[in-house]
Design goal:
It holds the Pfam family DUF3425. The protein is mainly α. The chain has helices at 8-28, 33-37, 49-54, 57-67, 75-93, 97-101, 111-115, 128-136, 146-154, 163-166, 180-187; strands at 155-157, 167-169, 176-178, 192-195, 211-212.
């Protein structure tokens, strides 16, 4: 199961629901939520097998979800996507004031998300406008989700450093995590953008979500 595994909404939705059910059941049976989620997302597990093998359950799942959609030319964006999936699922598994407060304002559920049924992975799309648009157009939530594949290939987070500069080693665990500067970049929604080709999926997107022009494609991430 991945974000664009070609099996459509049923595959991704079932995997998401199964993971949440399993994690919540483990908590009910006495597992500590932090043992399942960790205290931070193991984003380096996206490209480091050893990090993946030792990562907590939810970091592993977030990496699996993003893996096939990862961008070799925008590795930071792929790790940022893992971060978003992790913070959302951490809150869904353990909905406390603290885990909610840790969510960036822009990823917190909108009123439509709260009251209108929708596909699970929509909760991890960065822009509130985008999420509400898809909820208001339910036909987009069926079939092969071409808009989701286009989003995962067209999204970019504008990080000005290297991958090495974005990561540091967490002392207590020995795992790599985002530096404070890198996480601050991810938490700033103004640093996120979509490719201009996405206009075909969402008319009226201009002015709602930053769209990259050819001139904007300049900031190279490594």
């Amino acid at each position: 199961m991945t974000a664009n595994d070609g099996h459509g909404v049923d595959s991704v939705t079932k995997a998401w629901a199964d993971t949440l059910k399993k994690a919540r059941q483990l908590v009910t049976e006495g597992a500590k939520p932090d043992d399942l989620t960790g205290t931070f997302p193991c984003v380096a597990a996206l490209f480091d097998k050893d990090e993946y093998e030792t990562a907590p359950m939810i970091s592993k799942w977030a990496v699996q979800f993003i893996y096939s959609a990862r961008r070799q030319d925008y590795s930071f964006t792929s790790m940022a996507a893992v971060w978003v999936v992790w913070v959302v699922m951490r809150w869904q598994i353990n909905p406390t004031p603290q885990t909610y407060a840790d969510l960036p304002d822009w990823i917190r559920p909108t009123e439509l998300q709260v009251f209108v049924p929708h596909i699970d992975m929509l909760d991890c799309i960065s822009w509130p406008y985008f999420r509400d648009y898809v909820i208001q157009h339910p036909e987009m939530q069926h079939g092969e989700l071409q808009w989701l594949a286009a989003c995962t290939s067209g999204v970019q987070v504008n990080w000005r450093g290297t991958i090495e500069e974005a990561l540091c080693v967490d002392g207590p665990t020995g795992r790599r995590r985002f530096t404070a500067e890198a996480e601050a970049t991810i938490r700033d929604l103004q640093e996120w953008s979509l490719a201009a080709s996405y206009r075909a999926f969402m008319p009226g997107i201009d002015g709602q979500i930053p769209i990259r022009t050819a001139e904007d494609a300049g900031v190279k991430q490594v």
